[in-house]
Amino acid sequence: MLMIQGGPALSRFRVEKMVCQLAEAVPAVKGVTTQWLHFVDLHSALSDAQQTILNRLLEYGPSHHDTVVTGRQWVVVPRLGTISPWATKATDIANNCGLEQVHRIERGILWGIELDEALDEKSEATLLSLIHDRMTEAVLESADDAEVLFTTTEPAPLISVDILGGGHAALEQANGELGLALAEDEIDYLVENFRTMGRNPNDIELMMFAQANSEHCRHKIFNADWIIDGQSREETLFGMIRDTHHNNSEGVLSAYKDNAAVIAGSRGERFFPKGGKYQAQEEEIDIVYKAETHNHPTAISPFPGAATGAGGEIRDGGATGRGSKPKAGLAGYSVSNLRIPGAEQPWETDHGKPSRIVTALEIMLEAPIGAAAFNNEFGRPAINGYFRTFEEKVPGPSGAEVRGYHKPIMLAGGMGNIRRPDVEKNEIPPGTQIVVLGGPSMLIGLGGGAASSMTSGKSSENLDFASVQRGNPEMERRCQEVIDRCWQLGEENPIV
Prior knowledge:
Helix content is 34%, strand content 25%. It is built from 15 helices and 15 strands. Helix 11 (302-318) runs parallel beside helix 12 (360-378).
């Protein structure tokens, strides 16, 4: 393994902000310095000329010669057993520059924390939790320990849940331990069916069922039959939502059946390659609209929660019909009272909050940056949105109750363009190839659908944190480029 030093990992502004944040939690902190470290795993040794090329590739930003890291040191690296988005890009670039001996390049941050006294175990744990994301990163005591980044291990074995022997109780226990958010009737359904098959399910099967059948994915409440004041209602909540389209369908080309809706646009010119040359091409340009919420993740971890909210909406827009082009985004937020320190308002009573969700102020300081960052790094502007606060004590059926947005609304929306012949998906003939685009699937967003279907506070803190995905806008941009090349082929579009 080679280690190549880089420049400072944080700007002066970020360093000052980090010092304030760390000192508030651990008063012994007096200063922070950082430096990028690059770890290179090689198939074989590099020549002097190749070493020069690699050094030049890893020279970006301020020079490492001007970087001095002082104080107690730790190295923050990508989570062991995973491959970071940065690594896939850097390794591709190195290989394309003739460095075929490079197997993988990973990047870490050397942190130097200046302290005016030694830290006890609790203070050290608090400090480390603030300089790394435990979902995607790990902390090493020394850069020499980074060899472990390139260690490979065998996948963990499947875990069987003994339904045949333990029945309902065994699945109830797994339901709690894995955070599956299964309802009683779903547990009964699984027990009955696996007993009929004469075998026990494994943990992967249960996790897949929980995600696909979660409220987050299936909207069972919105499609349920309702009895209100003893009267059965014919309409469902989703049916009532669809009524707007049923009663006003003029100009709507697709609604409530795909990843996004499509309305008729107008004729115009689009600029994309044809026959190897970029040129304006006149055609019908229809409009894709999409909006969704990402509330649970934003309540737990605002920056990645809002970022992946935007990313999910972009993905759905691009995957509409036989492929479309995302163009512009929006982000909206409804939160409880901000209670800004030193600027609290008379009506902002502190009613408390669940311990595992962040404050409304933290959401509004971090979530908008997360959504904007993902949009920018993907290459699509976020051009509008909304923001409001509400938290009030009001009369309720059992006395006074507090209404508000402790669990926030994070609205991610956007629009794009689609070609008229691509609005409808075609029938899929037998033997059609299925292509999965994107990076490797790691344990990121673990239990996301099921976790967001739970009542806040009923899941474990670790599961709540693990259920928040982490964004990879560059990989999503690569996926979108593939989709773009397909729809730009016109009648030869290979997407079914």
